[in-house]
Amino acid sequence: MNSIRLRSLPHLLLAFVLTFAGIQQASAQDAAAVKKEGVAPGATAAATPATAAAPAAGGGDAAAIAAGDALFKGNCAQCHAVNEQVVGPALAGITKRRPISWILPWVKNSSKVVASGDDYAVALFNKFNKQQMPSFALSDKEVTSIVAYITSQEGAAAAPAGGVTAGNAAAADGQAAAGGADAGAGKYVDILLIVLVVVLIVLVVTLVIIGNLMKDVLRGRKDLDGRDIEILEQRFDWGKFYRSPVLRGIVGVVFALVLLYEGVQSVMAVGLNQGYQPTQPIAFSHKLHAGTNQINCAYCHTSVYKSKSANIPSANICMNCHSQVKTESPEIKKIYRAIERKQPIQWVRIHNLPDLAYFNHSQHTQVAGLQCQTCHGPIQNMEVVYQYSALTMGWCINCHREMPLNTKDNKYYDNLVKLHDSKNAGAPFTVSSNGGTECSKCHY
Which residues constitute the signal peptide according to the record (predicted)? Predict the structure, then answer.
């Protein structure tokens, strides 16, 4: 009986150790799942759509208002708000101040209207320190839909994150890069893990004390047989354990496997720059611009929907806002110096594909309708941009195999979809179904 008790103690201690290790691993996985930052493919930077609710005022066709909402955010929201002045004037009541026949040419080429001597245009130009509004290649229908959206939003409460203002820019300027991003559920997981660790340590110490007390009690008994005394007095021979050929063989095999694994990982990581986060010449915050102020990516990267590459914005685009906002900031003064010297800002490229791979931004953004976050991750939450995705061939191929092809209202695909459905009933028509995994699609 006593010998059984002594044998059970090491097993009980081992069970507690294994339980602790399992709980620790599960808690770490839960914490990682909670803290993992990302967005699902197709997700947008904006948290809530502006057109989800009914129009605040005015009226107009719902489709036109929805189209105007997207156009306003992509072209106007960087300098204008509906119900408050930011870089430019508040747009509420614009149809009462100016007829649509005046608004159309003003949006398309404001400098031409000012040069014509129009009294209202000249007065507006002078009022805002002769800040020239950019020209927009929009159709009459698109401008009209923007006006419909503005009319529908007149009198509505301004969104706290809308527009670039001196106030919210200064408020966000002091934010820490890490912020409180891991607050919430992750904090409680950490607290729970700490409590469990403390409880398990107390249990282990208690069991050790009980085991020693039991040995002391048993040593004082006279009715123990030889087997009980042998178990009671046995000591673990660490020297014999170290010299064991089995142990040395296991250690040698594990060491060789670790070296082999690290060697393979090093070879596989050649050219892989996931997580690359260089220091830029100007401390530009995507979290402030794309996140807090919800500036559309296409406003700065103007060719992302119509070109093979997404251009790096010029200093002139920065000056559309920063000729009025945070003009005394040391970082903004670097832009001024670049313009004065007529030199481009030496931004450090982050996302690089090898020359042997063909990639077209417009094909993915304009045709496929993918959002920037699909490949670039939660760009709206990054103080300093880093390469979020692996951008390897396997990563691209997996996306082509899983991503349904956007065939809506495109007659080019009608017959292909029919042929696909006739042979693959129920299977989605993916990019791979259209030859998106063939070598010549990306290598030429």
Answer: 1-28
